[in-house]
Amino acid sequence: MKMNHLNLAVTNVPAAAQFLETYFGLRKQGGNQGLTVLFDDDNLVLALMKASQVSYPSTFHIGFAQESAECVNEIYQRLKNDGFEVKPPQRRHAWTFYVQAPGGFTVEVASR
After folding, report:
1. Which SUPFAM superfamilies match (predicted)?
2. Band (33; pLDDT cuts 50, 70, 90)
């Protein structure tokens, strides 16, 4: 069995979609201020749905696995250069860092 759909409630659909397209290569298929659907390379459907506020648990996040530590470092540097507040990657369960995405959710970027 394969998971193929995830819906995230976000406070700013266009900003969240642009973030995921820019830094993680997701592709948008239609959308508006209230709902946008994105796809990854394996055709996972990620729906972003407008909410007036979001309150995810502190441990909740979505993750993007990278092929190498160098890829993790490159994404970190791009985010930092673009003004995101992000702590440098470090070795935990993987070479990883977390970033707050526009719209109110957390993203983990990691490589084993």
Report:
1. Glyoxalase/Bleomycin resistance protein/Dihydroxybiphenyl dioxygenase
2. confident
Q: How many CB atoms lie within 10 A of CB 13?
A: 23
**pLDDT at res. 102:** 97
- What does the pLDDT read at residue 64? 96
CATH of the domain spanning 5-51+61-111, picked from 3.40.50.300, 3.30.1360.20, 3.40.30.10, 3.10.180.10: 3.10.180.10
Residue 73 has which token pair?
């470092």
**pLDDT (average), residues 21-28:** 97
Give CA–CA dist 3/15, Å, rounded.
25
